Amino acid sequence: MAARSVILGIDLGTTSVKAALVESAPGDPSGFLVLASCARAARAEAAAQSAAAGPQGREQDVSRIIQALNECLAALPQQLLQEVCGIGVSGQMHGVMFWKTDQGCEWTEGGASPVFEPRAVSHLVTWQDGRCSSEFLASLPRPESHLSVASGFGCATIFWLSKNSPEFLKSYDAVGTIHDYVVAMLCGLPRSLMCDQNAASWGYFNTQSQSWNLEILRTSGFPIHLLPDIAEAGSLAGRTSRAWFGVPKGTRVGVALGDLQASVYSCMAQRTDAVLNISTSVQLATSMPPGFQPAQTPDPTAPVTYFPYFDRTYLAVAASLNGGNVLAAFVHMLVQWMADLGLEVEEPTVYSCMIQAAAQQRDTCLTITPTVWGERHLPDQLASVTRISSSDLSLGHVTRALCRGIVQNLHSMLPFQQLKEWGVERVIGSGSALSRNEVLKQEVQRAFPFPVSFGQDVDAAVGAALVMLRRNLNQKES
Ligand SMILES: Nc1ncnc2c1ncn2[C@@H]1O[C@H](COP(=O)(O)OP(=O)(O)O)[C@@H](O)[C@H]1O
Ligand SMILES: O=C(CO)[C@@H](O)[C@H](O)[C@H](O)[C@H](O)COP(=O)(O)O
Q: Where in the numbering of this chain does the Carbohydrate kinase FGGY N-terminal domain appear (predicted)?
C-alpha cells in the first residue's frame, strides 16, 4: 500500500497553539481530510523585559508557547506522526522575538523522541504591544511600502528597542516571528528566514520589490544585520534536523506563513468567498483580482489594508485589534469582580453562562463600541457603552451587545455593501472565538446577510498543512 501523505500543520496563535494532521484525499470534495487536531492555551503573557515599555508593553514567554506546542504534538496520534512527510507552520503576525544563532534552543534526547526547548531567546513582543506612541511612530522615517507602520509591528519594536534599550539588542543576532523561530529551530537554519506575508506585517518591506527598505533603515540607525532573509510564501525552508515527536528526521518544512493567510487558504473555496476570522483579534478578508497592486503610499486612516497572499496576489483585509480579546477582557473583569466579592468562578464557566444567557436574549438596545485597544486606523477610539436602560443590564443583554459590537465594529470597517460590490457571494467563518460562540455566529449572520458557513477551529493550522501539501509535496520529489 502506498505510503500516506500526512502533513502536520501548526498555528502559533496569540491565545492558543493549534496543530492538525491533514491527509490528501482526492476522493473528498475538499481534497483533504483532517485526521486529528489539537489546541492548547499558551497562557504565555509575561511582564515586559524592558521596564521602559510601560503598561502598554505586551510580551509573551516563548518557553510557554513552545510548551503548548509540545503538549499539542504529544496529544496527536503517534502512529500518524511517524507518517508525516511535511510540516507547515503559521502564527501570529507582526510580533518579533530575538535569539542567538546556534544557541536558540537545546534539543533533549531523553524522552521517547527529541524535543527542543528555547535557550538564549527573548520574549515575543506581540502585535498587541503599545509601547510605540504616536509621537514615537511619527519620529520614524516614512516607509517605502504600501503598509504604514503601527505599534506592535516588528520593525517599529526594533526601532524602539534600539533607541530605548540598546544593550538588549547586543545580546542577540537573529530575529523573527514566533513561527519563523520554530521553523529555524526545527531545521537548524543558520539564519532566520521570513516570507513576504510576515515581512509585510513588520513594516519597512516593499512587497513589489520583495525587499526590506534597507537604505531607509540603514540611514536611520536600524540594525539591518538582524533582518531575516526573504523567501517566497509556500516555498521550503529546509528539513527537520532531528526526529521530533515521531516525525522523521529530514521531513520537509515550509517557510512560516501568516495566520490570517493560512486561515484564508483553508477556508476560501471560491474567489467570491470572504473569510471572517474571530480569534484573539478579528479579520475580514477577501481576495483581490490577479494583477492588483495596492497604492504605494500608505493611508494610516484606511480601515482596509492589502496583505500579500500567494503568488504576488493580495487580500483586502479589515483587521480589527478587538475580537476575542474583548470577550476575554470582559470575562477576566467578571472573574476579578466576583473574586473581590469573595466568590471564585472559573473562566470557562463564565464563558458558558454568558453565551447561554445571550443566546436567550435575541435582541438588546444596549450599544457597545468594543474598541478597548483602539484601532490602527482610529487609535484614540476607545470603548464605550450607550443606550443603557435599567431593563438592559442582564448578563444576556451585555453579552449580546458585546458580541454585536465586535461584529458591527468590523462591519464599519468593511461593510456588507462593499463586499457585495466586490462580488463576494458567501462568508466563511473561522477562528475558535467564533466556532465556540453561537451568539457571535448569529451576529455575523445578522450583519453580513450572505450565505454563511463555518470552518473548523484549527483553520490556520489546516491551511499551513494544505499549503505544504499542494505547493511542495504534490510536486515531484525535488
Ligand atoms: N471557553 C471558551 N468559550 C468560548 N470562547 C472562548 C473560550 N475560551 C476562550 N475563548 C475565546 O477564544 C479566543 C481565543 O481564540 P483562539 O483561536 O485561541 O485565538 P488565537 O488563534 O488568536 O490564539 C479568546 O480571545 C476568547 O474570546
Ligand atoms: O492585525 C492583523 C493584521 O494587521 C491580524 O491579521 C494579525 O495578523 C493577527 O491578528 C495576529 O496575527 C494575531 O492573530 P490571532 O492570534 O488573533 O489569530
A: 6-264
Single pTM value for the model: 0.96
For residue 441, the Cα-to-chain-centroid distance in whole angstroms is 20
Q: What confidence category does residue 4 fall into, taking pLDDT thresholds of 50, 70 and 90? A: confident
Q: What is the 439 CA–ligand 1 centroid distance (Å)? A: 14
Q: How far apart are CA 9 and CA 85, in angstroms?
A: 11
325 C-beta closer than 6 A to ligand 2: no
- Ligand 2 centre from 47 Cα, in Å? 21
Q: What domains appear along the chain, each with residue ranges and CATH number?
A: 6-262 (3.30.420.40), 269-457 (3.30.420.40)
Q: Which position has the grid cell 506592535?
A: 152
CA atoms within 13 A on the CB side of 30: 15
CA 461 to CA 465: how far, in whole Å? 6
- Distance of CA 10 from the midpoint of ligand 2 (Å): 15
**Ligand 1 atom nearest 13 alpha carbon:** 23
Nearest CA to ligand 2 atom 3: 319
Distance 434 CA to ligand 2 centre (A): 15
DSSP secondary structure of 388-417:
--GGG-SHHHHHHHHHHHHHHHHHHHS-HH
The answer to whether 183 touches 257, Cβ cutoff 8 Å, is: no
**Structure confidence by residue, pLDDT tens digits, 138-197:** 999 999 999 999 999 999 999 999 999 999 999 999 999 999 999 999 999 988 999 999
326-349 burial string, b = 16+ CB within 10 Å, else e? bbebbbeebbeeeeeeeeeeeeee
Report residue 253: phi and psi, to 5°: -125, 130
C-alpha distances (whole Å) from 244 to each of 7, 108, 119, 180 are 14, 10, 18, 17
- Contact yes or no for 185/116 (Cβ under 8 A): yes
